[in-house]
């Protein structure tokens, strides 16, 4: 007897699907970990891929190789409970850093009661006038937005099942040779052509998600691609751009065939080309690895691949014997006196500078500066320019000193604080009387300026702050003194090797904060002003101004702080040893310097130098750097 079977299927709800996804992922991953511990040889390719998705490629590599590494202060125990996703998250639209920054500023302004779009735009433009959102030459996003975009791409694809992300780095070959042969302006035109060709092709993927474009370095630019795209699609677009740009070698610029221009370093290569590298971004990627992988691919291609374009020599015009002899003699540099027009223009510039700095002729020695400029620079070809530069520097120095004397005696501001004061003044002109609202808007527009690890000011503000301290010390007539300190976290590379980027960043922030807290507490006094800065790599610095302040006192405070910071070497971490077991070891035992085998652990090295009136910024920083190097042993 035939029985009827119900052919209808129960379609699981979205909630049920998410629950099943989480349960299966957790169960399968636990199984793989058990097999890894009991029988590593039984693991298949898919098992390794699953582990990479869960704990990252670096962690899996360390597990399988048995090297003595740590897991950023985490053991596998409890890893699944902390890190297994409960359900896939549906992501919103991926946006650029500048878009997000502007949206957050608009929200901040509206929260403060400012609703006029034009007024908001003016305030935003003023707050960021020294930090534009795009590169003026290529119109790409600025280099500072590249790394944060990659970080968000990592988070984005980590919470998505269907979307992928890729980082693309592109190098324009022989840009230096082009600049030398054709001039900088023509070289920049070729660079722009390269960016346009690459952007035209890669931006075709924008319909599938997001494409971000970034200018960084003289001949380098990059893209971040996020969406339902594949590696093959990205590479196909880049190949098309590479082939199209190669046609430029057949063109002539100023009578020279581009393909005939010799590479400055590799004399066997001619012309130009774009060389690209792609790295895949996953939810477990490390931002440093993403950037370095693409860069290494580019460098590898550059070192092995000669340019495809053949050498095309331009015909040289025949020279007569007389012309040949003349060409061998170096041209004589003609000296010239400044004509009447130059003198008048310089005098007008001098008067304008005096007025702009609110000075009187007597403040600048009744014309002695102008007289020196005209007499000293009048015989040089660039006399007008040099005279103007001299006048500007001399009057600015006097004007800054006079301005400092008019300020409150205890007032010292960093470059960023001075910019904030300018913005507050601008906001008042826009009808915003409350200084706290103006300061909140200023900080909102410049969130990307602050170092994300320490919260310190950027290195770009350091020189201006030291200059401000030099002026301040001179204006106070000895009542205030200033000291510059540069410090570094010892053995950053060793920490990265063992602790990973996140673990190292935590330690860096801890050490930098401890150093600043020690300075603020031990040097506590009326008029104390400390500006903090994140410098490159393992370094950070401070500009300190106060009444009771000497370099020796600062050194004593930091020596005491360094001894306290050294206790971090006693911290115990979990490491995976060669016996396939987890063991506890201290940072001081297991963090070995990659170049100095006798150095273990980490610590604080620092150097200090006095900031004096009439001081020189470069000498101040160089002196402190020298003392820090001596302590970095």
UniProtKB/TrEMBL annotation:
It comes from Uabimicrobium amorphum. InterPro entries: GGDEF_dom, Rev_trsase/Diguanyl_cyclase. It comes from the Bacteria. Residues 163-315 form the GGDEF domain. Residues 1-23, 306-338 are annotated as: Disordered. Signal peptide: none annotated. This is GGDEF domain-containing protein. Residues 9-19, 318-330 have a biased composition (Low complexity). The lineage of its organism: Bacteria, Pseudomonadati, Planctomycetota, Candidatus Uabimicrobiia, Candidatus Uabimicrobiales.
